[in-house]
Amino acid sequence: MFSKTCEYAIRALLYIAQQSDAGHKVGFRQIAQAIDAPEPFLAKILQDLTRKGLLQSAKGPNGGFFVAAMDISLAAVVRAIDGDKLFSGCGLGLPNCSESNPCPIHQQFKSVRTQIQKMLQSSTIGDFNDLIAQGLVRLKSA
């Protein structure tokens, strides 16, 4: 559903938010290891998230990445990385699909797409901190 870049971005933000909540800043190597992501690829993603204001960074010996606002929606992350295609694109990838020119799955996909958008819009990075801390969910395969 998400691009690999977006998957890593969400997982990284969730991990960094968990660390930020505990008062820590983290380096990209630690993040990559924690979420099982390739370091060079993740470094570029983190730079992009910082540039777009979804993530903060500090330089120096006590530096690293941190999340200043826990109310960032998952929809905002998806839009920053993958754009609006998930929320408005055709399920079959047709460029001219619309209400007046629907593809074969247009109505069913529109319904699913709306549900996904509502879920991502109402879910924030901060919503997941307790679940992660309690071990009810995880960011890396076991």
State the main characteristics.
142 residues; mainly alpha; Arc Repressor Mutant, subunit A; two-stranded antiparallel sheet; 52% helix; Transcriptional regulator; DNA-binding transcription factor activity
Strand content: under 5%
The CATH topology of the largest domain = Arc Repressor Mutant, subunit A
Calculate Rg over CA atoms: 17 Å
- Average residue-wise pLDDT: 92
Low-confidence stretches: none
Query: What is the H level of CATH, i.e. the homologous superfamily of the largest domain?
Result: Winged helix-like DNA-binding domain superfamily/Winged helix DNA-binding domain
When the domains are counted, the total is: 2
Number of helical regions: 7
The arrangement of helices and strands along the chain is HHHEEHHHH
- What would the principal axes of the Cα set say about the shape? elongated
- The residue fraction in helices comes out at 40-55%
At CATH's second level, what is the architecture of the largest domain? Orthogonal Bundle
First-last Cα distance: 22 Å
User: Would you state the CATH class of the largest domain?
Assistant: Mainly Alpha
Main beta sheet, described? Answer: 2 strands, antiparallel
Structural class: mainly alpha
How many strands in all? 2
The order of strands across the largest sheet is 1-2
